[in-house]
Amino acid sequence: MTRVAVVTAGLGQPSSSRLLADRLSDATDRALRLQGERAEVTVVELRDFAHEITDHLLTGFAPPRLAEAIEAVTSADAVIAVSPVFSASYSGLFKSFFDVLDDGVLDAKPVLLGATGGTARHSLALEFALRPLFAYLRASVTPTAVFAASEDFGTAGAGTSLSTRADRAGRELADLVLQRPRTAPTDPFDNPTPFEQLLGS
């Protein structure tokens, strides 16, 4: 079983970011099933956690509901992260969520990036804003990132290109997940140094 956490920062209900996130998670699920693997998908709608994220930034403590969302991302085998493009970059809510994650949470974790905007002119935000952010977080990002403009959802047949890109990105994420060695999390208290040894040194 592969655990996939889907993080989407759309503000509306439904939002184009959530629509894109659903397409990407469906494509990933299909790609995993074709390789004999089942996916368990958890969706984190950041809109529902806006106040808790702000509280966490101010206090350093995550309220219980937000802590569950953070744990879903921390324990996931892969992450799909989708943000609307505001002022030529990811949204503040999107960035704030990744700011409250502990250091190292995304180390080498397979991540698929997506973004939405009114026109295709905003698509470069994936490369000059989102990809550098996740490189800094040391994630393993798929070569294909997917941008969806309003017209990709609008008319019959307009989503063909989007579906093609989503399928390619989903296959890339599935490949990264299945190539990554699975290691159980280590507990630093599993093998403590004996007290006598500490006294002896």
Briefly summarize what is shown.
Pfam families: FMN_red (PF03358). This protein is of the alpha/beta class and 201 residues long.
Keywords for this entry:
CE1759_FMN_reduct, globular, single chain, alpha/beta, 201 residues, Rossmann fold, seven-stranded mixed sheet, 8 helices
Task: Give an account of the 3D structure.
- The chain is α/β, with parallel strands linked by helices and 201 residues long.
- The protein has a single domain (2-185), classed as Rossmann fold (3-Layer(aba) Sandwich).
- 46% of the residues lie in helices and 19% in strands.
- The chain contains 8 helices and 7 strands, in the order E-H-E-H-H-E-E-H-E-H-E-E-H-H-H.
- The protein has helices at 16-34, 50-59, 64-75, 92-100, 125-136, 151-154, 160-179, 195-200, and strands at residues 2-8, 39-45, 78-86, 89-90, 110-117, 140-141, 146-149.
- Strands 1, 2, 3, 4, 5, 6 and 7 form a 7-stranded mixed β-sheet that branches.
- Helix 5 (125-136) links the parallel strand 5 and strand 6.
- Helix 1 (16-34) crosses helix 7 (160-179) and helix 2 crosses helix 4.
What is the fold's blueprint, element by element?
Blueprint: E1 2-8, H1 16-34, E2 39-45, H2 50-59, H3 64-75, E3 78-86, E4 89-90, H4 92-100, E5 110-117, H5 125-136, E6 140-141, E7 146-149, H6 151-154, H7 160-179, H8 195-200
Parallel strand pairs: 1-2, 1-3, 3-5, 5-6, 5-7
Antiparallel strand pairs: 3-4
Helix pairs in contact: 1-7, 2-4
